[in-house]
Design a protein that fits this description.
154 residues, 5-stranded antiparallel β-sheet, two-stranded antiparallel ribbon
Length: 154
C-alpha cells in the first residue's frame, strides 16, 4: 500500500475527518448556563405528623455535541424541568404523591454519534438497508406516582 493510495480512499460524503479545536471553544456536553431552584414547606399537624410540600425547577442552556460546535456538531436546545411532591410523614411511615416533569417538557438531553453516521447501503439483493449510527436521548415524559415508605427499625 502506498501513501498516495491511502490518501485517495475516503468515505462517501466525508471531507476532512479531523478539525482542530480553538482556545475558548465550549466543551461538548456542557451548557454555558444552568441553574436550579428548590423549595420545601413543612406544615406540622396537631397529631405530630407533618405535611411537606416541595418543588424544584432546573434550567440549562443549549449544549453542543462537539467542541466549539465544529465539524458535524449539533446544538441541543435549552430546556427547563419542574418537579413537585406532597408528603404525609408520620413517625414510622410516609406517603408521597409526586409529579416529575410537571409541564411535560420535551427536550433532547444528549447525543450519540453524528447525523453523518446515518447511511443507506444496499444489501446483496439490491434492496436499501438503513444504517443508523446516530441517536439522541430525550427527557422522560411527565410521571405521576405515589411513593410509600415504612421504617422497620426499632
Amino acid at each position: 500500500v502506498t501513501p498516495d493510495l491511502v490518501r485517495t480512499i475516503t468515505p462517501p460524503g466525508f471531507g476532512s475527518a479531523f478539525e482542530n479545536g480553538q482556545p475558548g471553544d465550549r466543551l461538548p456536553g456542557s451548557p454555558k448556563t444552568q441553574f436550579s431552584l428548590f423549595g420545601a414547606y413543612d406544615y406540622p399537624l396537631e397529631n405530630g405528623d407533618s405535611l411537606i410540600f416541595n418543588a424544584s425547577y432546573t434550567w440549562q442552556g443549549s449544549v453542543l455535541s462537539r467542541a466549539g460546535g465544529r465539524g458535524s456538531s449539533l446544538t441541543l436546545d435549552s430546556y427547563g424541568v419542574a418537579n413537585a411532591a406532597l408528603t404525609y410523614e408520620a413517625d414510622r411511615w410516609s406517603a408521597t404523591l409526586f409529579v416529575d416533569n410537571v409541564f411535560d417538557e420535551f427536550a433532547e438531553t444528549g447525543v450519540i454519534g453524528s447525523v453523518l453516521n446515518n447511511q443507506i447501503v444496499t444489501d446483496f439483493e439490491g434492496g436499501d438497508v438503513f444504517v443508523r449510527g446516530f441517536s439522541t436521548h430525550i427527557l422522560p415524559p411527565r410521571a405521576i406516582g405515589v411513593r410509600l415508605k415504612f421504617d422497620f427499625g426499632d
